[in-house]
Write a structure and sequence with these properties.
Keywords: Signal. InterPro entries: Choice_anch_A, SelW_related. This is Choice-of-anchor A domain-containing protein. It is a single chain. This protein is of the alpha/beta class. Among the domains are: 118 residues, no CATH class; 112 residues, Immunoglobulins (Immunoglobulin-like, Sandwich). 24% of the residues lie in helices and 35% in strands. The protein is built from 18 helices and 45 strands. It has a 16-stranded parallel sheet that branches. Strands 9, 12, 13, 18, 19 and 20 form a six-stranded mixed sheet that branches. A four-stranded antiparallel sheet has the order 4-3-6-7, with no helix packed on it. The radius of gyration is 39 Å and the shape is globular. 35% of the residues are buried. The C terminus is likely disordered.
Amino acid sequence: MKQRVVWFAVLLVAVLGVPFSVWAATPRQTPTKAPLAVQATVRVVESVPVVAPAVAVTATAVTCDPLTTRSLYGWFTSNTTGSVYNSSYTCAFEVGIAAYSMFDDRIGNQQLFDYTMYTVAPRQTINLNVKIPDCKAQLDIFRGPVLHSLVGQRYGERLLSTRFPNTTLCAPPVEEVCSQGQISRLSGVSNNQLVTGVLNIQAEVTGALPQKVEFALTGAQTTNYTDVNSPYYFMGNNGSQPNGWDSSTKPEGDYRLSATYVGLFGESLAIRCEPVAVNFSIRRSTPTTEPTATSTPLPTATNTPVPTATSTPTATATNTPVPTATNTPVPTATSTPTATATNTPVPTATNTPVPTATSTPTATATSTPLPTATSTPLPTATSTPLPTATNTPVPTATSTPVPTSTPVPGNQCVPQGLGTAGDFNVFTFGNITQSNTDIEGRVAAGGNINFQNFGVGVRLTNSNGTRDDLVAGGSLTYTNGSVYNGNVVYGTTKSLNGVSVLNGTVRQGQPINFANEQTSLRNRSQAWGGLSANGTTVYEYGAVKLSGTNTTLNIFTVDGAQLNNANGLNINVPASSSVLINITGTNNRMQNFETFLTNVDQTKIVYNFYQATSFSLSGIGIKGTILAPFADVSFSNGQINGTLIGNSLIGGGESHHYPFNGCLPAIPANKSVER
């Protein structure tokens, strides 16, 4: 056997001029940390014929397509080792193995821990080795250069194999992020200050700007606020003008305000640094002095001055002046006492107590309560309900029938097509329960909503109370968080604790007919699911690959069982075209893979789970809108850049505000739901 191999190598060198190193080269490695002494195993295939065209082996190896992976096969043999086989007769490839630390289940937040690079020669099998962290990691075997960061980029078709050793997530890189930027101080208020009036409190940042600054006020009143734009003010700012926090309208007591620098690691991992805090107090002197001014003057004005004013001046005024007018001596005897009795007591009794008794209490009683009683309720009672009652239903009534009124299925493209639900980031017919995350756009549920440590509408524009951003058809239970730019509406009962509604109001009402929306969306979902595909679906190496050529609307059908176990999703269609992906199956999931888009924008994609009654999302970044109107959705972690429509929703996944703005097929108005 050895002799045959040697003679075969000599034949290549002597006759064809092919260096033996090209055919059976020892792999090259470039470790990032401690060098790894890895010797590749060379497997010689005896039956490979050498024909005349092989003379160009050396040139072909140089000009081989560096992007192709059709000749490469990779697999793992353990948590630290893997292998790659190159089936090409002519091409050598650069391959590698890398370990990425995992802080959560999002690919874009992983951090490169270690990697090693090799060259695999034609018809060669090599072994690869890499170090791994003592926490959860993703191992990748790939072709081409290593990715030092996964922010905005993935291996895609270059990926040959993947493995996930360990189960405990790695500790977040707090020190790394917080050393790049921090809050130096809170300006606008001093520690232990007795405050009055409007405070403009700013979190001054040095170094890299944060993703956001989270303010938390505790004490006599609790308020949470998040500012995402520099400069970072408590209660935000309008351009260069801070909105301010008016202490005159807040309860007396002691307060503590903390500001937390939240940095971004990777694509979406929020790192919270050590907060900076300040203590201050609100004390008012008016309530203390008013009782003193009222109680003391009244007894004095009533008991002492009144008898003096009545007995002494009256007798003097009646008896003394009459004799004075007649006799000369009498005025002399009475002029001094009379002047003294008349001038001194009377002004004292009349001028001092009376103004004190009347001016101070009266002004206090009239000026303070009356404006408070009249100015606050009136604007609230009149301004808030009127815009809400007129603005919200009107778009709903006009926008929903448009797609359903066209009787030609599939042959026309109707803009939007999702009715009222298309105006929301998350829309369900039943309950929503989420915590420790946020929905960047609007959210509506026909049932109950239960939020904890939650934000709503941070990426929306300020509606000044003219838009309903949080709508619960049933009860609303909300603990700690903020609704940033619109109104809160609940159907039956509400419980709001530590929740700030910053640019809207809270009211009871039913602005959305959820029953109508449910019927309409279920009709459409099933009608779209029955349309014929005009695009191509390919299942290859665990990935689902969709390609279409229609410049307006590309329709695909995907087997739900294939998608459940997919390791990637690729969509390639003409720019500006819309995409409708109909997924079969009643029990569906999308987990632990990335979506790769070519030409198409994520705001023009709809994933239609028209048969699903159960649907789970985890460890994934969805690019596009999900329509699953029959499904109870479990969204444990990850993110969606689009609208999520389901029967119900539970979990901690993030919903990012990328509303669908493409076209969907028109459906008959009389189409009924078949279940």
